[in-house]
Structure formats: structure tokens, C-alpha cells
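Re: that backbone. C-alpha cells:
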């Protein structure tokens, strides 16, 4: 429960951050800044999850096949 609440709070903080940054930097109306933050929040979350997932996959050790499956391949060569 605590982890889920923390994730929701982080999403809300990201939305507010994007709302303020998009609204101020691009000099948009409040409605346009809201729509930009509303569409940008899922994109940032997706990109961050994709980036972290790829980083963890590289750090994992590759699984090796059992020796019995590797030896027949070597005999064919």
C-alpha cells in the first residue's frame, strides 16, 4: 500500500512539474499547459520505465545453457 501511494504521489508531482515548466517556458494558456502536462506525463513515465528496464537487463548475467546442449553443437563443426 505504501509503495502504491508513493508511486501516485510521484506521478502527481511529475504532472505539476510538467504543468509549470510547459506553461512558463512556452508561454501557453493554462488550458494548453494542462493538456501538455496531461499528455506528457505518461510519455515521461513510459520513457523512464523503458530506460530503467534496459539498464537492469544489461546488468543481469546472461544465462548459460547446460553443457550437454553445447557439446553436440561443437561436434558438428
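Recovered sequence:
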Amino acid at each position: 500500500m505504501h509503495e502504491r501511494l508513493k508511486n501516485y504521489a510521484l506521478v502527481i508531482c511529475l504532472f505539476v512539474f510538467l504543468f509549470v515548466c510547459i506553461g512558463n517556458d512556452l508561454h501557453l494558456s493554462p488550458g494548453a499547459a494542462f493538456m501538455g502536462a496531461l499528455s506528457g506525463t505518461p510519455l515521461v513515465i513510459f520513457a523512464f520505465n523503458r530506460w530503467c528496464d534496459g539498464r537492469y537487463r544489461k546488468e543481469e548475467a546472461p544465462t548459460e545453457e547446460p553443457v550437454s546442449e553445447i557439446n553436440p553443437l561443437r561436434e558438428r563443426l
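The chain has one domain: 2-76. The two ends are 56 Å apart (CA to CA).
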